[in-house]
């Protein structure tokens, strides 16, 4: 047996030598370059997989206002934060990875899903600003900069070149900078930001469906019966008959980490947006007694950004020995969604 093992490794050694061109210097150099490249790519991949830190919205708003020598008018914090979120998407460690075509970005899986979660919230909120927040009524003209910014963030997230995703998103960021400059102009601001209850409530309604979908998908990590199948199999003429459960719906184990990091990216973006909303919509939130709901949403979203001590996303059963990171994330998002529902209800009351 030991002889066979030695022979096996001897054969593999010969294979490597043949692949590298025998004992030639060129072959050994090529092999060394390939090995070094993959080692560097491995280290870079580990670094690039690190998520950006949470930043202080108030500190960043004050710093930006000082640099621009402008007063932080209503809407300033929200626009500045939206810009910072979009810039972080492109300028974080490793840059924008979702459209990479070479290692190590090509190998990474978690970070592209994190980026997609951030991007979805950026798209939804830029649409809300264009459609509602920058307009006084339904017959008002749309802001010219937001007309540019909103569709730019809807550009294909995986385009590598001609044009690249980064170039299109930066054009959207430039439009937001222009909108911010006009909004905070001290003499004649030509941009508007209406911090009204109805504008905020419209965005919250869309956000509820987003978080509801994420919570449901996260919860399916342990498998659940299909509600639609269960309802379709019920006999309405015999209410005492035994309920028939539907087919089990479960997130494939290969997609568990994808869903988790998409949710984590969405929560990261929403945490900063809600902190900015707490600043710019403070008066309407206080008038509608919705400030406590906003605080609750922020607290729950902060919980989603806790440090990850496990090197992999665990998928233990609901009451099993191992942790289930998906269910933990779903719990935070569900409570945030409930607080959003309460907040929207308060904002829509007279």
Could you please describe the fold and organization of this structure?
The protein has 350 residues and is mostly helical. It has 13 helices and two strands, in the order H-H-H-H-H-H-H-H-E-H-E-H-H-H-H. A two-stranded antiparallel sheet has the order 1-2. The longest helix has 25 residues. The model has no long low-confidence stretch (mean pLDDT 85).
SSE order and pairing:
Elements: H1 2-19, H2 25-48, H3 57-68, H4 76-91, H5 110-133, H6 144-152, H7 165-183, H8 197-219, E1 224-225, H9 227-232, E2 248-249, H10 256-280, H11 282-287, H12 291-303, H13 325-348
Helix pairs in contact: 3-4, 4-5, 4-7, 4-10, 5-6, 5-8, 5-10, 6-7, 8-10, 8-13, 10-12, 10-13, 12-13
Could you list some keywords that capture this structure?
2 strands, globular, mainly alpha, 63% helix, 350 residues
Mean pLDDT: 85
Query: Shape from CA axes?
Result: globular
Q: Indicate the percent of residues in helices.
A: 55-70%
Ends distance = 84 Å
Instruction: State the total count of DSSP E strands.
Output: 2
Q: Can you count the helices?
A: 13
Q: Gyration radius, to the nearest Å?
A: 26 Å
Segments where pLDDT lies below 50 for 5+ residues? none
Strand order of the largest sheet: 1-2
Class per helix and strand makeup: mainly alpha
Assess the beta-strand content as a share of residues.
under 5%
Question: Gist?
Answer:
With 350 residues, the chain is mostly helical. The chain has 13 helices and two strands.
């Amino acid at each position: 047996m030991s002889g066979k093992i030695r022979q096996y490794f001897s054969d593999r050694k010969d294979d490597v030598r043949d692949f590298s061109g025998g004992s030639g210097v060129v072959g050994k150099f090529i092999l060394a370059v390939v090995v070094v490249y993959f080692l560097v790519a491995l280290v870079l991949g580990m670094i690039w997989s690190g998520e950006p830190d949470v930043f202080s919205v108030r500190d960043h708003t004050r710093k930006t206002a000082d640099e621009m020598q402008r007063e932080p008018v209503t809407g300033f914090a929200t626009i500045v934060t939206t810009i910072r979120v979009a810039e972080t998407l492109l300028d974080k460690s490793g840059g924008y990875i979702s459209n990479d075509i070479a290692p190590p970005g090509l190998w990474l899986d978690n970070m592209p899903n994190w980026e997609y979660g951030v991007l979805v919230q950026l798209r939804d909120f830029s649409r809300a600003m264009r459609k509602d927040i920058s307009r006084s009524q339904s017959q008002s003209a749309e802001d010219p900069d937001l007309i540019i910014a909103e569709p730019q963030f809807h550009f294909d997230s995986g385009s590598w070149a001609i044009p690249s995703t980064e170039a299109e998103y930066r054009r959207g960021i430039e439009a937001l900078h222009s909108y911010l400059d006009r909004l905070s102009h001290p003499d004649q601001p030509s941009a508007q930001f209406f911090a009204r209850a109805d504008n905020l409530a419209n965005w919250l309604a869309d956000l509820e469906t987003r978080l509801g979908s994420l919570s449901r998908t996260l919860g399916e990590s342990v498998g659940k019966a299909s509600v639609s199948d269960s309802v379709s199999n019920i006999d309405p003429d015999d209410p005492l008959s035994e309920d028939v459960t539907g087919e089990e719906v479960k997130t494939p184990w290969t997609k568990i980490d994808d869903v988790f990091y998409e949710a984590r990216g969405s929560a990261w973006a929403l945490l900063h947006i809600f902190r900015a909303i707490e600043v710019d919509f403070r008066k309407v939130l206080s008038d509608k007694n919705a400030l406590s709901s906003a605080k609750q949403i922020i607290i729950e979203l902060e919980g989603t950004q806790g440090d990850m001590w496990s090197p992999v996303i665990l998928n233990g059963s609901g009451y099993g020995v191992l942790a289930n990171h998906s269910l933990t994330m779903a719990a935070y998002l569900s409570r945030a969604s409930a607080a959003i529902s309460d907040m929207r209800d308060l904002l829509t009351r007279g």
